[in-house]
Design brief:
The strands form two sheets. A two-stranded parallel sheet has the order 1-4. Strands 2-3 form a two-stranded parallel ribbon. The chain has twelve helices and four strands. It is mainly alpha-helical and 216 residues long. The protein folds into two domains: 2-44; 61-215, Nitrile Hydratase, Chain A (Alpha-Beta Complex).
Length: 216
């Protein structure tokens, strides 16, 4: 009797291991294999999926957030409005929608550096920054960003002055955060178009800084 009840369990484990062995080791190939299976079952439309991927890869991405930051650097009135009510400003720019729910913009200053994490999953302002990078979704980043932010920043190559405090903002399904980094020195009088190339994705998450004027 004991033997008969263990056999199905053993057989199930064997099938489970066998199925995993058939999956390609490369993550991209695994995704493609899963897409093929779902398509064959009629659960997804490949054309619709391609359209979504194209949108977030080429039409929506960090360049949109960079456009907001560069304009805030160049236009004090826009900056004030953005910090006071980001949703209204972003809506006027057509930068709201799914995965771009309520957005709060927080500003870096010489006294405080801000960084963003989602400790529960990977909530991220897709309409402003595109698809979140793999490190943002990793367990290590999500667990350590709140506990030891300076150590995490150092691993990104960012060492802050001891007198500059670090504030970590926990993004959720209801509230997403965008960092307004400090404007690089030596860019006085530059237009938003000139400032745009200096804005990096990581500077808008808080794990990096904008490029310097000499890097433009």
């Amino acid at each position: 009797m004991r033997h008969s009840t263990s056999m199905p369990h053993d057989h199930h484990d064997h099938d489970h291991d066998h199925a995993h062995a058939l999956l390609p080791p490369d993550p991209a190939l695994r995704v493609r294999a899963l897409e093929t299976i779902l398509t064959e079952k009629g659960l997804i439309d490949p054309a619709a999926l391609d359209a979504i991927i194209d949108t977030y890869a080429h039409k929506v991405g960090p360049q949109e957030g960079a456009r907001v930051v560069a304009r805030a650097w160049a236009d004090p009135d826009f900056r004030t409005a953005l910090l006071n009510n980001a949703d209204a400003v972003l809506d006027g720019m057509g930068l709201t929608g799914r995965q771009g729910e309520h957005v709060v913009v927080v500003e870096n200053t010489p006294q405080r550096h801000n960084m963003v994490v989602c400790t529960l999953c990977s909530c991220y302002p897709w309409t402003l920054l595109g698809i979140p990078p793999a490190w943002y979704k990793s367990d290590a980043y999500r667990a350590r960003a709140v506990r030891e932010p300076r150590a995490v920043l150092a691993e990104f190559g960012l060492t802050l002055p001891a007198e500059q405090a670090v504030r970590v903002w926990d993004s959720t399904a209801e509230v997403r955060y965008l960092i307004l980094p400090m404007r690089p020195e030596g860019t006085e009088g530059w237009s938003a178009e000139q400032l745009l190339p200096l804005v990096t994705r990581d500077s808008m998450v808080g794990t990096g800084l904008p490029l310097s004027a000499r890097d433009a």
